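Model it.
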Amino acid sequence: LVGTGPGDPGLLTVRALQLMQSADVVLYDRLISEDILRLVHGDALMVYVGKSKGLHTRSQDEIHRLLLDFSRAGAVVVRLKGGDPYVFGRGGEEMDYLQEHGMRVHCVPGITAASGISAELGIPLTHRGLADSVKFLTGHLREGGDLPEDVAMRAAQEKTTLVVYMGLTTLPTLAKGLVEHGMDPATPAAAIERGTTPRQRTVVAPLDRLHAAVEEEAFQSPTLIVVGKVVSLSPLWGQERRLFTADDLERPQAYGLPVSGDLGSLLPAEAGWPGNAPAP
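Modeled.
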């Protein structure tokens, strides 16, 4: 079970890349980017098992059976999943099924969307004085229904950052429930479509205006929702416009530039610890 992160191939782990280049069979989901799929070695058998709303190419039971059958045939099987396999990825279900049938399962964690996308936007999920806890929710939890009262009550706490995966459908209900349970309607919030990819689009707005902004820009799945005071720390917050694309984000373009001077001289010379000597 291999997590591929939020979309940018640069965020793959070394272990994930090693397995992708040595697997006999690769089962992959809808949200795995083409840039990542191109890193799988050419001799691997590629099997698409993607799902979207109302359209499942294979049921979860069929996916379980394919994993088992390929494994029993002696193949090294890689199950590619977006983000992290154990964060809303049904990786636990696949692990349980395979282990119950005597298969050895190894999970390679991936950078989950909450971490990868918020880092891309300069949003720390926790920050002293603003957020001392983080809550992850899935928008598929109670699609079309009311936000469970206990969830809304805890999520509306003043120093909590709320991250909602696949949250487009439930955004109106979510915002309404949070405000009803005490969250300030002006709480900074962001919606990020296809985060960390070249097609990324981001809307930032107060919580009570986020849904209207997302609808106006016709956001599509996958979209991540981040709600909390920490959103105000992003350089995107407070600007006159509210829609931003991947081209608006500053990314380092060059590494290994010439270094001027002795970097060790910048270290403070503390008692017994010369600036150029390693700490014990």
